[in-house]
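Tokens for chain A. Residues wanted.
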């Protein structure tokens, strides 16, 4: 009789243990699913939320800046009974368009050249102005592109590869000093800030041209390789890109 009761107790404990293990497995699966849903929600909402937040901050920063520049009688509070987000941005864009229209005319070009002449006469200011002007003309001009192609090259030693962007053609003293070899200028950016990096001059035959666009290459650098570029186009296009680099 005692053995029968002991056997029943063991079976009951075994059943209870199995039931607890099953309940634990169910809760673990539920927790894993909830955790996966949480990370999915973050991946979906975070880029949108950050983008809208940055746009919101930028719009209100421009509104505040423009409102401070305007005369007291023309401030937003004196004209509009309620706050209108983005009105400062609209005024700024309209003002820049008017400035561009004025600068495109004969009188505007005269004053622009006169102002540049005065700026170039200032020792320190002229250097800063010249640098900023070249940067803005490079990035905002519709006739030129900041970078031409995306390439890979072995740097800083053989066996290690980095992503680079073919910059402008070699000109002036650099081209004259490197006349003994066909070289191209390659800008190698840093991760995750591609605005910093260094410029190196590489023989054309030592670079591998990629089919990815410059935009995809920048995304690849910014994300540290997490965002893969789009599928390569075609081998025919690859030959065309290689030919373009040889003409650099």
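Reply:
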């Amino acid at each position: 009789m005692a053995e029968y009761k002991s056997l029943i107790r063991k079976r009951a404990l075994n059943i209870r243990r199995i039931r607890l293990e099953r309940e634990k497995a169910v809760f673990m699966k539920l927790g894993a699913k909830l955790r996966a849903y949480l990370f999915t929600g973050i991946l979906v909402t975070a880029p949108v939320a950050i983008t809208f937040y940055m746009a919101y901050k930028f719009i209100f920063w421009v509104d505040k800046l423009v409102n401070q520049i305007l005369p007291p009688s023309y401030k937003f509070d004196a004209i509009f009974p309620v706050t209108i987000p983005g009105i400062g941005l609209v005024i700024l864009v309209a003002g820049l368009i008017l400035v561009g229209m004025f600068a495109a005319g004969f009188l505007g070009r005269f004053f622009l050249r006169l102002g540049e002449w005065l700026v170039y006469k200032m020792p320190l200011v002229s250097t800063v102005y010249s640098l900023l002007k070249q940067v803005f003309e490079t990035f905002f001009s519709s006739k030129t592109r900041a970078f031409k192609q995306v390439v890979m090259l072995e740097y800083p030693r053989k066996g290690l590869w980095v992503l680079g962007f073919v910059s402008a053609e070699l000109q002036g003293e650099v081209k004259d000093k490197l006349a003994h070899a066909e070289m191209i200028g390659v800008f190698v950016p840093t991760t995750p800030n591609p605005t910093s990096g260094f410029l190196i001059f590489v023989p054309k035959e030592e670079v591998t041209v990629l089919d990815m666009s410059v935009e995809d290459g920048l995304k690849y650098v910014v994300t540290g390789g997490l965002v893969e570029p789009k599928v390569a186009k075609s081998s025919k296009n690859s030959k065309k890109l290689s030919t373009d680099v040889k003409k650099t």
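The longest strand covers residues 183-189. The CA atoms of residues 153 and 207 lie 5 Å apart.
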